[in-house]
Amino acid sequence: MSLSQVIVEADGGSRGNPGPAGYGAVVFDASRSVLAERKESIGIATNNVAEYRGLIAGLTAAGELGASTVDVRMDSKLVVEQMSGRWKVKHPDMIPLQRRAAELATQFSRVTYAWIPRGENSHADRLANEAMDAAAGIESAPVAPSAPAAPVAPAAPSEETSEPQIAGSPGWIATTGKPTRLLLLRHGQTAMSVDRRYSGRGNPELTELGRAQAAGAAGRFGNRGGIDAIVCSPLGRTRETAETSARVLGLPVVEHKGLIETDFGDWDGLTFREAAERDPELHREWLSDTSVRPPGGESFDEVRERVVAARDDLISTYGGATLLVVSHVTPIKTLVQLALDAGPSLLYRLHLDLASLSITEFYPDGGASVRLVNDTSHLR
């Protein structure tokens, strides 16, 4: 069989990273008819290894079909950018895989690489999940013809530890479906941060250290890949932090007003001590009651109300995707609180460093999980 042009879509994942891993690949003709499918469990491996193995399998299948040109589409930003030559391959596990894929590509007259959202890579994603089921020793139960197939959670495409859940399978959480994953990044340092002042609706710029922190986070996300969209608070310090990652990831930045920091009212710009001295009784109440407002400002209960609406809007707009959400300390704490279904004391007890990363997931069935809190390893 000889074809002039085919489309290869590939995916891979690991449940544990490293953990039971597998890949899937599908070859389409121009009319989207399936020409070939490949899937394989590969034992214990990382997400990125599995992604590359999926690409290699797809290119091999395209070569066996006699294709002359290949359009590769994957939801791994890392693989797409490395194969396109825009990012360097540094990890020793990736170097031989990238070389093998590049060798296979030479048999074609042209190969292009394009990133697509995970939602548009569902065929390869399904094959990869079937392979991971086999790697993990999970057998698919037979389904009656009249019954819908049980939904399958996706493999995590990132370098973060992940444990997606499969409907009907054992696990610590009984969630089903494809979660919307929020990578919650606090903005970098500002002059207000240095002086430990309440910084709400003001618009201080990032310091030199703050810009370095934003660059450190961007490097992490660039190596990580798998991010579908970037959303941030409309304030300058979050916008600048987000745009640093956007340049690395090649994605636009979308502002969402629901992610803006608490309005501290008349306390904005004051230190903790200055606010306590100015309004001693009110300040004490505010530190223990989320319904209390700073003078001329916004209560934490009001922040929670708009953050809930923002979360629901993000899930509605980007359901099943991985989002980089750049925001402030209170909205990020609130999203973690919502994912944990925790009480208000979390807002007062959880510490979040500047430019720290936390990860939450919200599932279609209403379940949620927290994968990471206050990680700053990218700043070291």
What does this structure look like?
The chain is α/β, with parallel strands linked by helices and 380 residues long. It has 2 domains: 3-126, Nucleotidyltransferase, domain 5 (2-Layer Sandwich); 180-379, Rossmann fold, CATH 3.40.50. The protein is 36% helix and 22% strand. It is built from 12 helices and 11 strands. Strands 8-7-9-6-10-11 form a 6-stranded mixed sheet. A 5-stranded mixed sheet has the order 3-2-1-4-5, sandwiched between helices. Strand 7, helix 7 (236-249) and strand 8 form a beta-alpha-beta unit. Helix 1 (47-64) runs parallel beside helix 3, helix 6 runs parallel beside helix 7 (236-249) and helix 10 (300-318) packs across helix 11 (329-340). The chain is elongated, with a radius of gyration of 23 Å. Residues 138-171 have low confidence and may be disordered.
What descriptors fit this protein?
380 residues; alpha/beta; Nucleotidyltransferase, domain 5; Rossmann fold
List the helices and strands and how they pair.
Blueprint: E1 3-14, E2 19-28, E3 34-45, H1 47-64, E4 67-74, H2 77-83, H3 95-105, E5 110-115, H4 122-136, E6 180-186, H5 191-194, H6 208-224, E7 229-232, H7 236-249, E8 253-255, H8 272-278, H9 280-286, H10 300-318, E9 322-327, H11 329-340, H12 345-349, E10 357-362, E11 368-375
